[in-house]
Design brief:
The complex is a heterodimer. In chain A, the strands form two sheets. In chain A, strands 2, 4, 5, 6, 9, 10 and 11 form a seven-stranded mixed β-sheet that branches. Chain A has a four-stranded antiparallel β-sheet with strand order 1-3-8-7, with no helix packed on it. Chain A is about 0% helix and about 50% strand. Chain A starts with a strand and ends with a strand. By secondary structure, chain A is mostly beta strands. Chain A contains no helices and eleven strands. In chain A, a hairpin with a 7-residue loop joins strand 9 and strand 10. Chain A is globular. Chain B is mainly β. Helix content of chain B is about 0%, strand content about 55%. Chain B contains no helices and eleven strands. In chain B, strands 2, 4, 5, 9, 10 and 11 form a six-stranded mixed β-sheet that branches. In chain B, strands 1-3-8-7-6 form a five-stranded antiparallel β-sheet, with no helix packed on it. In chain B, strand 6 and strand 7 form a beta hairpin. The radius of gyration of chain B is 13 Å and the shape is globular. At the A-B interface, strand 5, strand 9 and strand 10 of A face strand 4, strand 5, strand 9 and strand 10 of B.
Chain lengths: ~110, ~110
């Protein structure tokens, strides 16, 4: 049972390049989330999907787009990467949006040069 | 919008000392969750508090939820080196919003 799987684990991009971070969960969870983690800033919510077919902005959505491809998969896209998007990105899922624990992937360390 | 503030940002204690981190929300929360992240790792769920004034214990860890459901605390008794990491609270509404976390370092 893999839980939440993120790919890639590491990525270096040049400013202006685009890329998609992939996330898949095998726990039949309804809700999925994307966070970024920067030193001293904690985990900041980028986008979330409370259920399949819905997506909503979090605290820091600018510069990102998401797709809830199906119940299992929730991808995060950077259309034109900027150095300010250098961060560690975590995907998470939970059974429901309201009162269940979140399970996190191992994270993607992204550097934009 | 929903905001969760957490203090202190950083604490360095001697092994055996107690540790407390505090969490405050700008809005009333339906529930609050606590997570621990080991250095280089990902956040792992510890506990969820739902009821006003609720207190839960996990071995040396004590979690409290305030009467107004706008604040919470995590207290660790007699810290050990295995307690090292960052402790996050998270406010649970339709989305899960995290505080900035408290980094705990334990000196042996």
């Amino acid at each position: 049972n893999a839980g939440v799987t993120q790919t890639p684990k590491f990525q270096v991009l040049k400013t202006g390049q685009s890329m998609t971070l992939q996330c898949a969960q095998d726990m039949n969870h309804n809700s999925m989330y994307w966070y970024r983690q920067d030193p001293g800033m904690g985990l900041r919510l980028i986008y979330y999907s409370a259920s399949e077919g819905t997506t909503d902005k979090g605290e820091v959505p600018n510069g990102y787009n998401v797709s809830r491809l199906n119940k299992r998969e929730f991808s995060l896209r950077l259309e034109s990467a900027a150095p300010s998007q250098t961060s560690v990105y975590f995907c998470a899922s939970s059974r429901t949006a309201l009162n269940t624990e979140a399970f996190f992937g191992q994270g993607t360390r992204l550097t934009v040069v | 919008g929903q905001q969760v503030m957490q203090i202190p940002q950083y604490q360095h204690v001697q092994e055996g000392e107690d540790f407390t981190t505090y969490c405050n929300s700008s809005t009333t929360l339906s529930n609050i969750q606590w997570y621990k992240q080991r250095p280089g790792g990902h956040p792992v769920f510890l506990i969820q508090l739902v009821k006003s004034g609720e207190v839960k214990k996990q071995k040396r860890l004590t979690f409290q939820f305030g009467e107004a459901k706008k604040n919470s605390s995590l207290h660790i008794t007699a810290t050990q080196t295995t307690d090292v990491g960052t402790y996050f609270c998270a406010g649970r509404e339709n989305k899960l919003v995290f505080g900035a976390g408290t980094i705990l370092r334990v000196k042996s």
